[in-house]
Design brief:
It is a single chain. By secondary structure, this protein is α+β, with helices and mostly antiparallel strands. The chain is built from 3 helices and 9 strands. Strands 1, 2, 3, 4, 5, 6, 7, 8 and 9 form a 9-stranded mixed sheet that branches. The chain is globular and about 40 Å long.
Length: 147
């Protein structure tokens, strides 16, 4: 199954990806960054690019009516990053509770595509567990099945 996504560009070490969202609000540049934390753990940072400063704005609500295409683009970048770095653990947490919930819905909706290649954990208040449908997680951890 192929999900529509935006064409994106990656930097030379595949840690920063950029693409342009297109919708009723116009063309909005987006960035996905895989920020090294410790060991093989990376934080996935995502947001709009402030054109005047170049900074990542992760709390802006764009409402460009393309959230599924944007999420598919993020998933494609995670795939590319983990092909390059197959032992990477990707930490994902939305900048707000509703954005984290959006990530959960995207994981649930696309589980049949994700489950073959990745292991997904959800963080509860008291620790981590393998992803369970319907749970309200505060963050996610994902890695390729090859670990």
């Amino acid at each position: 199954m192929y999900l529509k996504r935006y064409r994106y560009n990656a930097n030379e070490n595949f840690s920063v990806y950029t693409f342009t969202s297109e919708g009723p609000k116009g063309k909005i540049r987006k960035v996905i960054k895989f920020v090294h934390m410790v060991g093989n753990l990376y934080n996935l940072a995502f947001g709009d690019i402030d054109e005047s400063t170049g900074q990542t704005m992760d709390t802006v609500v764009t409402n460009n009516n393309d959230s599924l295409k944007v999420l598919s683009t993020i998933a494609a970048c995670v795939h590319d990053f983990t092909v390059k770095y197959p032992n990477a653990l990707i930490f994902m947490k939305g900048s707000t509770h509703s954005r984290t919930r959006l990530y959960r819905r995207a994981i649930t909706t696309n589980w049949s595509l994700i489950n073959d290649d990745y292991v997904v954990y959800g963080q509860m208040e008291d620790g981590w567990e393998e992803f369970v449908f319907g749970e309200d997680y505060v963050a996610f951890l994902i890695h390729r099945n090859n670990l």
